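Reminder to self: tokens first, then the designed residues, so the page reads top to bottom the way the pipeline ran.
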């Protein structure tokens, strides 16, 4: 079963902390929208974000991963061989996670 790359919730006017289950390479790849508009947020744990102020009651919240399609590492560079074993991008590409 593939990992979800998006989770949805509905605002209640008071909840600011939201969990999400998917892995990511960099925190900059995680995005949050409220009613389709990007909002600022902060990480309070590896898989928990804080949206402040809390989204109003009935507002649609989406937390998702947007991983760039361009490689982070040039695997053709011989110096990358050592990193290939250790870098998370290699693990994601091997698993086929996008």
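Designed residues (98 positions):
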């Amino acid at each position: 079963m593939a990992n979800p790359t998006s989770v949805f919730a509905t605002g209640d006017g008071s909840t600011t902390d939201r969990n999400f289950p998917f892995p990511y390479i960099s925190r900059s790849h995680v995005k949050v929208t409220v009613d389709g508009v990007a909002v600022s947020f902060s990480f309070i744990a590896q898989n928990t974000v804080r949206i402040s102020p809390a989204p109003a009651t009935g507002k649609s919240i989406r937390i998702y991963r947007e991983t760039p399609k361009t490689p982070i590492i040039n695997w053709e560079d011989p110096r990358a061989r050592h990193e290939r074993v250790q870098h998370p991008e290699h693990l994601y590409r091997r698993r086929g996670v996008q």
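The two ends are 14 Å apart (CA to CA).
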